[in-house]
Amino acid sequence: MKKLMNIEPSRSLKGFLALVPFVLILMLYWTASNERLAENPYDKLLPSFTQISDAVDRMAFTEDKRSGEYLFWQDTGASLYRICIGIGISAAVGLLFGMLSGLLPVFRSGFSPLITIVSLIPPMAILPILFITFGLGELAKVMLIIIGTAPVIIRDIQSHVRQLPSEILIKAQTLGASTWLVAIRVVLPQIMPRLVSAMRLSLGTAWLFLIAAEAIAAQEGLGYRIFLVRRYMSMDVILPYVMWITALAFAMDFSLRKFSELCFPWYHQQEAGK
Question: pLDDT by residue (tens digit) across 185-226?
Fold first, then answer.
């Protein structure tokens, strides 16, 4: 008889087991919502599925009377623009400075302590400074994402560069490669998959900072809308927005993972073999 720890479920069973928690959560919510609405039809804490559907239709498929825009998609576009710009710049900065500090001891000695200190500063604590310095426009929100994620990416890339086998670097130098050539031809291909992984790990943090920035100073965006309607206890709007943010974050993470698997299959084969 196989031990439980050695039983590997089939693909169909994996899919079923993955759906079970979501079905249970929906059933629990449906039951609790019905009970609260039965006692008080005007209760806003747990809206019914019908109320949520009506709110989605109102926000996503009905033009706003003031602006003539579809607010749901306008908010989505604004938030995606900010987070993609922020994560993209963080990845570029993290790749450049992480590779330099990992490969060059002189650069690491002068730069690494600063990055360590910056990475420990709570970005939310300096949010007022960002708004004072960069104003209430897009730049302050993007800068919050960059400050919150770039130092972590830099430290991750630096650590990965330093873990590369020294034999590879020595052989390249023995064959006459310069520092620049070693960085481009040897180090860069090795750390690109790690960069994608670091971006995936930073997505949750980036969304957190984005929602916080939009809640404080914005005129559009998913975080702005959530904090705008909370004063009216509009849970029928808040819940779909939260689920949509989760879906967007999952889609971004899934896209990055598939991109990594497509471009760097050798890296994932090594990970699977460990």
Answer: 999 999 999 999 999 999 999 999 999 899 888 889 999 999
Count CA within 13 A, CB hemisphere, residue 269: 5
Q: pTM, whole model, 2 decimals?
A: 0.89
Task: Please report which residue ranges of 122-234 form alpha helices under DSSP H.
Answer: 127-134, 138-162, 166-174, 179-181, 188-216, 222-229
CATH code, domain carrying 110 = 1.10.3720.10
First-last CA distance in the chain: 27
Q: In this structure, is residue 61 part of a structural domain?
A: no
Question: CA–CA separation, 80 vs 248, rounded Å?
Answer: 9
**Which phi-psi region, left, alpha or beta, contains residue 221 (left: φ > 0; alpha: ψ -120 to 50)?**
left
| Cα-based distances in Å from 194 to 115, 126, 187, 199, 257 | 19, 29, 11, 9, 11
> How many other β-carbons are positioned within 10 Å of the β-carbon of residue 249?
15
192 within domain boundaries: yes
Is 149 inside any structural domain? yes
Residue 268 within any structural domain of the chain: yes
Domain range enclosing 109: 74-273
Number of domains in the chain: 1
